[in-house]
Write a structure and sequence with these properties.
By secondary structure, this protein is mainly alpha-helical. The protein has one domain. It contains 3 helices and no strands. The mean pLDDT is 86. Its main location: membrane. GO terms for molecular function: proton-transporting ATP synthase activity, rotational mechanism; proton-transporting ATPase activity, rotational mechanism. Keywords: ATP synthesis, Cell membrane, CF(0), Coiled coil, Hydrogen ion transport, Ion transport, Membrane, Transmembrane, Transmembrane helix, Transport. It is a single-pass membrane protein.
């Protein structure tokens, strides 16, 4: 260290100081300004990027709010459509039941009418058969009774007696 102090030269110090000041001046004129401009430009770019990011964030929040609103509207519309569909389904089922019931009653009435007409036809046929059978029996009985003269006279008198009573 003593060597440094003993070797100190004022001329060398002057020239080193002059070179250092010249170097500072040159840096200030040619390098400092472009460096500061680049730093300022970068700072402005970062500021713009932050503003863009903030705007994008706000826009995303607005889009999310819109999406939520649209989703809620879609859910409400879906619920409304499902409710309408259920009501239409219930109405169709009720109409089909009513129509089926009406047709069932109509078929029952037709069956009753058919049964009644067949019953009447069967009764008429039965009456016809009974009357035919009665006539056949009466014919056989009359033939048997009318085979002799005395029986004929008795029968005629009996019938005359019955005719007066009625």
């Amino acid at each position: 260290m003593e060597k440094l102090i003993n070797d100190f030269s004022f001329g060398l110090f002057f020239w080193q100081t002059l070179i250092f000041v010249g170097l500072i001046f040159l840096l200030k004129k040619f390098a400092w300004k472009p460096i500061l401009d680049a730093v300022n430009e970068r700072e402005e770019g970062i500021r713009n990027a932050l503003l863009s990011a903030e705007n994008a964030k706000k826009e995303m929040q607005n889009l999310q709010a819109d999406n939520q609103r649209i989703l809620q509207e879609a859910r409400l519309e879906r619920d409304s459509l499902l409710k309408d569909a259920r009501e239409i389904k219930d109405k169709m089922i009720a109409d089909a039941k009513n129509e089926a019931q009406a047709q069932g009653l109509k078929m029952i009435e037709q069956a009753k009418a058919s049964i009644e007409s067949e019953k009447n036809a069967a009764m008429a046929e039965l009456k016809l058969q009974v009357s035919s059978l009665s006539l056949a029996i009466a014919e056989k009985v009359l033939k048997e009774e009318l085979s002799n003269k005395e029986a004929q006279t008795k029968l005629v008198e009996k019938m005359l007696g019955d005719a007066k009573l009625n």
